[in-house]
Amino acid sequence: MFSGVAAIARKQTPAIVAAALALIAFSGSASASANIIEAGAAQNQFYIEPSYDGTSIVLFGAVDRDRLKGEPFDIAVTLRGPVQPVVVWKKDRRAGLWVNSQRLIFDGVPNYFAVLSTRPLDDIAPLAERDKYELGIDVLSLPIRDEQKNAPSKLDRSEFEAALVRQKKAARLFLEEARAIDFFGVSLFRTKTFLPAAAGPGLYVAHFYVLQGGKVIGDATARIRLRKIGIEARLSSTASEHPWLYGVIAVALAAVVGGATSFLTRRT
């Protein structure tokens, strides 16, 4: 099993008119600039509060077809969330009980990782090219902590990676979607993905790639930030900046609630 991130937030729906105007602006800039692709997010800020249960992230852009010389091309988009350490345990059966026996600590696991593309990734580019840009869950870099006691052998690492990826996929925190890019007119495109509440707050980075002949020939980047507000922000700030105070308050609240419950039980 591995540790997860839970978050509660408020969803904000991007305005259709604003997105359309932005698409037109991108189309114009794509032709005037030196880039083959210009892209961005329909909304760059989302705020976490109690009513949030996930939100759709809309990404869009434009390609300069004149520079593509009429040749076929593909679009691939990755969206990556903030990274954090994750511990994966392996259980063994001992004396009739399942117990944790080995662990592997991954140092930089994205809370969320999605790859959206015009076609299946294997049809777009060979493995070596995908590996350069981490186009696919199978080529996602998952570094492990150097100094670990009782670390598994290199031959066993694949088991831990497979378990991590399997659980991330089950929670819809790692995903790949082919044929997920919609084109409008000659140059404009749009895609979207759902960001679950469990993905948590932080900075999300979208990378847009234009591929032709199995090679990446252009790219662009957009950033999206998910922030906590209200009581969630204050609790999170206290827990991270003053953990001892957070612990004292938590214990005190537990004692008060427990005492009140016990008193009411005796009265009844």
From TrEMBL:
<feature type="transmembrane region" description="Helical">
    <location>
        <begin position="244"/>
        <end position="264"/>
    </location>
</feature>
<protein>
    <recommendedName>
        <fullName>Transmembrane protein</fullName>
    </recommendedName>
</protein>
<keyword id="KW-1133">Transmembrane helix</keyword>
<keyword id="KW-0732">Signal</keyword>
<feature type="signal peptide">
    <location>
        <begin position="1"/>
        <end position="32"/>
    </location>
</feature>
<dbReference type="InterPro" id="IPR019088">
    <property type="entry name" value="CHP02186-rel_TM"/>
</dbReference>
<dbReference type="Pfam" id="PF09608">
    <property type="entry name" value="Alph_Pro_TM"/>
</dbReference>
<keyword id="KW-0472">Membrane</keyword>
<keyword id="KW-0812">Transmembrane</keyword>
